[in-house]
Amino acid sequence: MQFEFSTASRIIFGPGKLDIIGGLVAEISKNVMIISGCPQATADRLIRLLEAYEITSSYIKIKSEPTTDLILELVEFCRQSRSEVVIGIGGGSAIDSAKATAALVTNAGDISDYLEVIGRNQPLINPPLALIAIPTTAGTGSEVTRNAVLGSPLHHIKVSLRGPHLLPLIALVDPELTITVPPLITAYTGLDTLTQLIEPFTCNSPNPLTDAICQEGIKRVGGSLYRAHENGSNLNAREDMALASLFSGLALANSKLGAVHGLAGPLGGEISAPHGAICARLLPPVMEANRSALLRLAADHPALEKYRIIAVLLTGNKNAGIEEGIQWVRDFCQHVGIPHLSTYGLIENMFDAVLAKATYSSSMKGNPVILSEGELRNILQQSL
After folding, report:
1. pTM of the complete model beyond 0.85
2. Helix (H, G, I), strand (E, B), or coil: what is residue 36?
3. I need a surface site. Which of 63, 188, 228, 234 has the fewest CB within 10 A?
């Protein structure tokens, strides 16, 4: 058995931990750039906490998921401000933007030199600026991953900037920051978290450490996602979901994903839909397709037992079968009103382009079984 495990240099978790940010930053620099995707009140609080330590901040708020064009603007802004620390605060979009900015400021060349699929996929050589990631949603786990997902308007696809230099210096996870997240976004991000726990757990190259993390995370989602959605001020539920999100980032950074993310990247380039909503619509049909294909092609495959464990963890029923786990996800999507992807503009005429791009996705290569084009097409059909 061989595996590696990499993560942020330091992980700080707990309610109220944002209050210590000034002291953490002061140990590094007095000049920071803040990339925000969070409510203005939270950003203002962060700025005040930094000012208490006489730290100067250059602030920019992003309003959409990061694109290659946006990152180029952020890199130029960072260079002009001569910032030495980059703080990403918000959801995955803000944190991925901060990660990409911190890395590209110190690495010369065109952004396409470093991108997967549409670029040269060259490694980032130089260490990034000091990066601090502060999530305000419980979804992507981006605070501990070594990639940043960027949209390319030219290519109509989302791709990754990837490498160990994308890992933050500090990941500060304060569950209190997620209390004001609206119910539907709580659902989207929570299902993104669940997908990022299920796929590394069932992928074709798991390891014992990520397996343990995934099982703990899935159990917390099963016990708290409904509660966090129904009552956002329930701090215990928010803490469970923030921890599950952190675990999902640790898992995907050190294992592989699967067909949900293999399709989600190309879909995200074709339609304007939240990543979590795409994952939510794809997850049940992908789980069902994997179950059927594994039973047909490899009935003794360990992923089948893992899908059964997922069902037990989600439902709390020790006798649950695989279908009950799939149904738990379906029921939650229906309960919270996750829209069908046709709502965001997906039509059958897009399927060929999506499937062609999915073929080259690194995530698709982690799926526990190779799904045929017909099976993948059926998954897209069910998501409409």
Report:
1. yes
2. strand
3. 63
